[in-house]
């Protein structure tokens, strides 16, 4: 067994990206609920997008360094975890893109404190409306997936008493 296989935790970059993405996503949701749409909601959404792309790339590069769950979980739990991870990984990329593209098709650039982080496009209200409606619906779907992910981590920690949560701390 190599040193890489003996690790009980994910690599530090994976752990840091996981928690920074959480902060960015929570920031984006809080801004909506507090009606602080501009510029903070856009900033946190764009930050979640960038961090998620980096995490997606590093996740595949570091796949061999994934620590084992002890005691092991069932194939069904493994499948459920994989499905939720895919929904989350794609969601944290798709959701911000829907928002940025929706604004862009309304002819609005997305800026953060006067620094443009995403340009405006030619106005097309039909496309913009569909993108932003999808953005809202998908935000709730993603919130449900986040809730399931968090509940599963707590279930593993407090009920199964395995190392699932500890691997990401």
Automatic annotation (TrEMBL):
Subcellular location, record wording: Cell membrane
Cofactor dependence: heme b
Transmembrane segment boundaries: 12-34, 40-58, 79-101, 137-159
Biological process terms in GO annotation: respiratory electron transport chain
Record's GO cellular component terms: plasma membrane
GO molecular function, one term: heme binding
Keyword list, A-Z: Cell membrane, Electron transport, Heme, Iron, Membrane, Metal-binding, Transmembrane, Transmembrane helix, Transport
Protein name: Cytochrome b561 bacterial/Ni-hydrogenase domain-containing protein
Species this protein is from: Psittacicella hinzii
